[in-house]
Amino acid sequence: MICERLRMPFDLHLTLPPKSWWVKVFAISALFFCAGWLFSLRFSIGINPQVMGCIRGTVFIVDHQDKTPVVGEVFAYRAMQAEPVYANGTLMAKFLAAGPGDTVEVTPDFRILVNGRQFARGLPHLKALDDEAVKRYVGRRVLQADEYWMLGTMPMSFDSRYWGPINGSQIVGRAHVLF
Asked: Which 3-state string (H, E, C) describes 72-109?
């Protein structure tokens, strides 16, 4: 009697789900695993950790099979002449502003022109240098075969205006901004 009074108002019946449930869980888990693996063969996800990025966007999907350079599109690439600011091989994403045959110019008033059209302005990272040192960044260049000029859209972008063009072998793939 005492036991009946202390009895819980409900009974706890712990039973395992039927075997068919476990089969479904396994099948769905395997499907998600395979889909993720197939996704990773072609794509990767990049996250921009910078407080002041070079283009709008924090999370990118990089398509490693779409490496054909297209002017005006965002591409991920491995930076090579950006030391000491970034280590060689650092993954970056910027707009491809110019390609082979295009004329790129940094004017004395720091306008960045591609085929005579202004794409950016300023060299804010050179403020600490004297005028003579800054002059080496001013000039005009026609891009050769397999040379690409990468530009960011934000004012503090560290891009080709500082370290010159990249070559096609540095391109990892087209980058799509998620958010």
From this structure: CCEEEEECCCCCCCCCCCCEEEEEEEECCCCEEEECCC
